Amino acid sequence: LSTVATTGLTKAAPSIQAFGAYWFVVDGGADGAPGLASSQRIDPSTNPPTVVDWKSVVTSGTLPARCRLISLYLGRMALARPEGGDASHWFLSKPLDPYNWAYAADDDETPAVLAAIAGTNRNVGLPGDAITALITAGDDYLLFGCASSMWMLEGDPGFGGRIYRLSKKTGVSGSR
Question: Structure pTM?
Fold first, then answer.
């Protein structure tokens, strides 16, 4: 726990996802404040664990800023609920590459299946409510627990996956 205090994360309840040898942590805090960042990559194999600003190691595109939620879905890092932005927005990294956030034009050079995807893509859609939790259900579904509804991403959006509403009356109160 003493190491977490040195990460520069500003919110009380960060969201954490393991991917490969690293832990990726988001908290929706203020990007760019001196010594602070809202997204971190932690290498737990070093002593003490090495903490870097995730944005500083992104190789392509721009890491979505100030997201509060993180999960892993179909080998893609999933981020959602940017603080200060539209609470129904979500994002997926390039498959198997949490450092690539370049969104595809969906052409022959960069088909959507090989690129990062934003939930604002007109072919996929956004939940109609503020996202409060990301819940991975195996390799088949990514559930968006929302304030007063439940939505499901079925399949990979790069292969035509879509969002469906599961409930318009039942929601999830928080990410835990």
Answer: 0.86
